[in-house]
Structures are given as C-alpha cells and as structure tokens.
Amino acid sequence: MRGDKIAESSAKHDTDRVPGQLCDVTDFEQVQNLWDVTKHHWSRVAPGPTTSDSAPQVNFWELPAEQIQAVVSTNLIGAMYGAKVALRGMLEQGFGAIYNLESLGSDGRKVEGLTLYGCTKYALRYLDESLARETKGTPVLVGALRPSMVLTDMVMKQYEGRPEELDKVKFIFNLIADRVETVTPWLAQQVLANSKNGACISWLPWWKLLGRLLMYPFRKRDLFGPFIAKQYKN
Questions:
Q1: What pLDDT does 26 receive?
Q2: Which of 6, 120, 176, 185 is surrounded by the most beta carbons within 10 Å?
Q3: CATH code where residue 89 lies
Q4: Is residue 167 part of a domain?
Q5: Are the C-beta atoms of residues 203 and 148 closer than 8 Å to each other?
Q6: Is 53 part of a structural domain of the chain?
Q7: Rounded Cα distance, 167 and 188, in Å
Q8: What DSSP letter does each residue of 108-138 carry, written as one string?
Q9: How far is 101 from 76, CA to CA, in rounded Å?
Q10: Is-contact 98 141, C-beta < 8 A?
Q11: How many domains does the chain have?
C-alpha cells in the first residue's frame, strides 16, 4: 500500500481494523516483513492478490533501460517474491490462497507498444500455472485474476498532455473497460467462493465481450464523464 493511501485509510477507518504497511515488492526482505506484520496483526493470512506496474504504450526500443528493469522487477520478480513468502507461510499455517493479477498479455495477445508489459504478464501466467501444479494436494490454492481493462489513475496517466491520443482510444475504452468500483466487488466475491486450485477468474471472458460488441450500437457506454469529473474534483 502506498504511503498516501495508508494515510487516507487511517483517516477514515480504525487502524486496528485496517492497518497499512509500506512494501517494495522488489525487495525480498520487505515482502517477508509484510507477511510477518500481517500475520502478527491478524494471526493468519487468507487470500491475497499481488500488485503490478504498467508501462507507457510506446515502441519497446524507445523505453528507458531503467523502466524495463522497474516493470520486470515489479510484475515478475515481485510476484515471485510474494508467492515464495506467501506459500511458505500458508503451508505452515495449513491453509490459504494466492491470486496473481493477470491482464493483457497473459493469454498471449499482442498489442503494439505494450511489449514490455505483455511479456511480464505472459510470464506470470506460466508462474501461476506452474505453482498450481506444485501446490496440488496441499491446503493452499493458487489462482489468477483477470479484471480486463479497468479505468484507473495508472491507465489515464499515460494520456496526460495528450488529449488527441485519448480521443483515439475512447471508443475501445468505452467498449471493453470498466470502473474499479464495478469490477473489484465481483472479483472479491469470486475469490471467496472459489475452491478450485488453478482457477483463472476472468471478469470479461470472450462471450461477455462478444455480447458488448453486439449491444454497443443500442446501449452505448460513457466511462469518461464520471472519471474525468472525479479527477477535476480531486
């Protein structure tokens, strides 16, 4: 959890119920400390997803070397560190579930300008499938979450100062994207209800996307009005 989000959460909620702990997922010791602090506070740890980092939609050769290292370290090394710490702790406590956040690239799809991000997510799919096999017969589940495209600050940031680029992709966003407050509760419910090792919980499978394509001329969606209004309000 970011420092600003910890402060925001602490101001709204009882810190005994909603504790926050800063953690750099690319630092193994900090990941281990996050587990230790959580275990100490709650006595046990149940399902928990990992975080991910994005990259701007540009040609791969135009990315700075440090950005390549940062995205790979967060999305892949961070997921591996988290899985190692969580699996060891959950096997020791006798139960638990791990869900990694998959997205574009996890299913092998290629999008120009997102080579770096897609590579890390394709590798994450391999990690999830392999860990599900390794944990077969244990009390720990390993699965994946695919929220599809979600309109977040991270997504919108890449269009700052480039309104013409945003106008080009608004149709795609309105067709396949959703808001965080729409997708998150559904994913949480599915995680709590799931008992299958290796499950891939997908918010927008192909049949649902096909339905949106067919209905779009009759039921148009506008995700940007409320989102942009919220940005200006903040």
A1: 93
A2: 120
A3: 3.40.50.720
A4: yes
A5: yes
A6: yes
A7: 32
A8: S---TT-HHHHHHHHHHHHHHHHHHHHTTTS
A9: 11
A10: yes
A11: 1
Contact 80, 123 (CB under 8 A): no
Domain that includes residue 114, residue range: 44-233
Residue type, 2: R
**pLDDT tens digits, residue range 84-129?**
999 999 999 999 999 999 988 898 888 888 899 999 999 999 999 9
The CA angle 159-163-168, to the nearest 5 degrees, is 90
Q: How open is the CA angle 190-6-87, to the nearest 5 degrees?
A: 45
- Entry pTM: 0.81
When pLDDT is cut at 50, 70 and 90, the band that residue 142 belongs to is: very high
Return the higher-pLDDT residue of 104 and 76. Answer: 76
Report if residue 199 sits inside a domain. Answer: yes
Token representation of residue 73: 């370290």
Assess if residue 28 is contained within a domain. no
